[in-house]
Amino acid sequence: MQIGVHGLVFTGTFDEKGLNVAASGASAASFDLLEIPLMDPFAFDPNLVGRILSDNELSMSASLGLTPETDLSSDDKAVAKRGEDLLTRAIEVVSESGGSSLCGVIYSALTKYSQPVTPQGYRNSAAALNRLGETARQAGVELTLEVVNRYETNIINTARQGLSFLNEIAHENVHLHLDSYHMNIEESSMFEPILEAGSRVRYVHIGESHRGYLGTGTVDFDSMFRALALINYDGPMVFESFSNTVVSDELSNTLGVWRNLWQSSADLASHANRFMNDKIRAVKSIEDH
Ligand code: MN
Questions:
Q1: Residue (of 175, 178, 215) closest to 194 by Cα position
Q2: I need a surface site. Which of 34, 231, 233, 264 has the fewest CB within 10 A?
């Protein structure tokens, strides 16, 4: 299983300097993979990303949240087209960086909607993701849709809604991305939804209820790790945490990161790495007997 960490644990900027900070930090905390937020994929040089990651012996994945200007579920065709163009470029960047996974809120804007998605917007997003799933397949990249809470999308807030949306998309290269922070807000438990989603879960974020140190909030990680073991989940599993110690204006403001939940990236990251590996190892001990 690849155990990863989100780049925003280390830096809020992803130019050459920021990428070096994130990659060396991930490597020092013994992670296998670095997830890079690709909010503007046109600003990335894939060769540079690929070189920095390989110098640090890390695998790469990328995530992004669309904006109201690039909302794939918009009824406005020009807006949806901008979203599809942005995601097409993001797939290229992941592929050319040597990565194999693009995740996040890539089916709607990452924003608080004030009304439900329209039936047409839902179908348009699914149809675009069917096309993007094929583009990604040809580039050797898998797409996973992050199920997030009601304040960040109006399309998929639960794993079950995610499965229905995958049926609408109908492409074998588009799967689900579950996140403990969002599950803790919307799901009935951390256990059954993972069993129900089963093999369609292809990417996991591990975050605490307040997005700080793992084990200091209300997320039931014990149930979650048992469920992941039961579906034979084999990764990636990526630690996600935000504090206004490290700020990316674009993403931090969208996610409402207003508090200082930690000061030291290095301590937070190595703690998270131990926490996840300890849970995986402990669950394995009951599986084997
Ligand atoms: Mn997440």
A1: 178
A2: 264
